[in-house]
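User: Hi! I have a protein structure encoded as tokens and I'd like to know what sequence might fold into it. I'm fairly new to this, so please keep things simple.
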């Protein structure tokens, strides 16, 4: 957090005074880079999707391995994001599946 505020004189002073062991410093810097590298997930309209959002399908989708088709207009509540910004996870017809974000719109 202090690195993000390093343009402030007081934050830079604290960074200069702080002592961290090398392995702790590496761990802290690795955590920062993971957060910075994550790309947001967008729906078909360009709205940013967040965990817990509700989305609606804009196209009939064949669900492989489950033997059913997720119909257009189906609402998927309480989504969760994956490591791939093009995919989300949600429950359709009682089955937890991965959906492609370009076939969704935020409700």
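Assistant: Happy to help. Inverse folding works backwards from shape to sequence: for each of the 107 positions I chose a residue that suits the local structure. Here it is:
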């Amino acid at each position: 957090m202090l690195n993000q505020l390093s343009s402030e004189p007081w934050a830079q002073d604290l960074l200069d005074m702080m002592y961290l062991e090398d392995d702790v410093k590496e761990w802290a810097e690795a955590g920062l880079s993971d957060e910075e590298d994550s790309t947001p997930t967008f729906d078909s309209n360009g709205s940013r999707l967040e965990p817990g959002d509700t989305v609606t399908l804009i196209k009939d989708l064949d669900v492989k391995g489950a033997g059913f088709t997720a119909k257009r207009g189906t609402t998927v509540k309480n989504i969760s994001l994956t490591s791939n910004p093009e995919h989300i996870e949600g429950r359709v017809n009682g089955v937890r599946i991965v959906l492609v974000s370009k076939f969704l719109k935020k409700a």
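A useful reference point when you look it over: The helical segments are 9-17, 22-37. Feel free to ask if any position seems puzzling.
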